Automatic annotation (TrEMBL):
Cross-referenced InterPro entries: DNA_methylase_N6_adenine_CS, RlmKL-like_Mtase, RlmL_1st, SAM-dependent_MTases_sf, THUMP_dom
Domain of life: Bacteria
Protein name: DNA methylase
Alphabetically ordered keywords of this record: Methyltransferase, RNA-binding, Transferase
Domain THUMP: 46-157
One Pfam family linked to the record: UPF0020
PROSITE patterns the UniProt entry points to: N6_MTASE (PS00092), THUMP (PS51165)
Keyword DNA-binding attached: no
Coiled coil: none
GO molecular function annotations of the record: RNA binding; rRNA (guanine-N2-)-methyltransferase activity; rRNA (guanine-N7-)-methyltransferase activity
């Protein structure tokens, strides 16, 4: 019988419930929601599947041991005693990442360095040679988590952060993180049931994530590599079975996903990224000023966007810019759910519409609000406003 083991999926603030739901739908058991993480159980195949299919996970960690430590020497000794030769070859490379919540251990980089020293010293003492450190493309990524005196050692099965989907070949100023974009679309309730518009699309992240959600395409299908692929026990046949099974669940999308931007360079970049994701059949982008646009037809529409931040709008224009958003939605987009994320809380006052939903998120380190404006048809629209 295939053995289940505990894993921890890391995510962004506000995405924990979404991630738990994703894991549940994929077939995880023993799901527990934490802060910026969800723990669960599954087997090796499920670990592969979670990396491939979770839209709101940043990392999938596999804890291998936990112990009490009271001094740095405790840490060194316990790490040194672990059978690292089971997890990597001496010719391989490693990288260590640490997070600490402790009064005794306060410097995460020092903890990472101490861990690395213990591992390479064990190899040198046993085999006469030591593995190298490679922070960019190691064969083994190790995660150390210290909470007061409890140290948990995990293998990082994802490798690079899972927001790096592999389709983004071009980037604009302050692009939105792919995991945050997917989470926002999922929070909005869009699942491919109608048309979708990003009226300030930049490099096309919302559009690409929306198309993958609408077609049920695994979000990390375009990645070159996951961390687990360099592990000694990587089962390539099992991974290919998991991938094939996920691809059989891809569905057609009968509606339209489209984006505007006033910047021709952004439009070019969005087109390159969409092409890289093989989604050009589902997404249209064009150079267009949202404030001079209106809804194409009377069908239902989801609008999701991330308006430019203060460094891209001078402070004198913020009031005018945000009031133009409200006016355009009122005038041109009846029968629409409009979702917008911004970290400029003052600017929201100028939209001139009352949001029906407000959700606290973080865009990078900036606290942000995701707001929903419901634009009704006809008299209901007028009475609401």
């Amino acid at each position: 019988m295939v053995k289940n083991f505990k894993m921890v999926a890391k995510t962004l603030f506000g995405m924990e419930e979404l991630l738990a739901q994703e894991l549940r739908q994929l077939g995880a058991s023993e799901i527990e929601i934490g802060t910026r993480n969800v723990s669960f159980e599954g087997d090796t195949g499920f670990m592969y599947k979670a990396n491939l299919c979770c839209r709101t996970a940043i990392k999938i960690l596999k804890p291998i041991t936990a112990f009490n430590i009271f001094t740095e020497e405790d840490l060194y000794k316990k790490i040194y005693e672990m059978p690292w030769e089971n997890y990597m070859d001496v010719k391989g490379t490693l990288a260590v990442n640490a997070t600490v919540f402790s009064d005794v251990f306060t410097h995460s980089q020092y903890i990472a360095l101490k861990t690395k020293d213990a591992i390479v010293d064990r190899f040198r003492d046993r085999e006469g040679v030591r593995p190298d450190v490679d922070l960019d493309h190691p064969t083994l990524r190790i995660n150390i988590h210290i909470d007061r005196n409890i140290c948990t050692v995990s293998l990082d099965s994802s490798g690079e952060s899972l927001h790096k989907r592999g389709y983004k070949v071009e980037s604009t100023l302050a692009p939105i993180n792919e995991v945050l974009a997917a989470g926002i679309i999922m929070l909005s309730g869009f699942q491919g049931q109608c048309n979708f518009l990003d009226p300030m699309c930049g490099s096309g992240t919302f559009l690409t994530e929306a198309a993958m959600i609408a077609c049920n395409i695994p979000p990390n299908l375009n990645r070159e590599e996951f961390g687990f692929e360099t592990w000694p026990d990587f089962d390539v046949d099992l991974y290919e079975k998991i991938e094939d099974a996920a691809l059989k669940k891809v569905r057609d999308f009968p509606h339209k996903i489209y984006g505007f931007d006033t910047d021709p360079v952004a439009i070019h970049k969005a087109k390159e990224n969409i092409k890289s994701a093989n989604l050009q059949d589902f997404i249209e982008v064009k150079q267009q000023n949202f404030f001079e646009s209106e809804k194409e037809n009377d069908k239902s529409l989801y609008i999701v966007f991330n308006p430019p931040y203060d460094e891209r709008i001078s402070l004198t224009d913020v009031e005018n810019f945000y009031s133009s958003i409200g006016n355009t939605l009122k005038r041109g987009y009846p029968g629409t759910q409009a979702w917008m994320i911004t970290s400029n809380m003052e600017a929201l006052k100028f939209v001139g519409l009352r949001p029906s939903t407000k959700i606290k998120l973080f865009n990078g380190k900036l606290e942000a609000k995701l707001v929903r404006y419901e634009m009704y048809e006809g008299s209901k629209k007028a009475s609401k406003q």
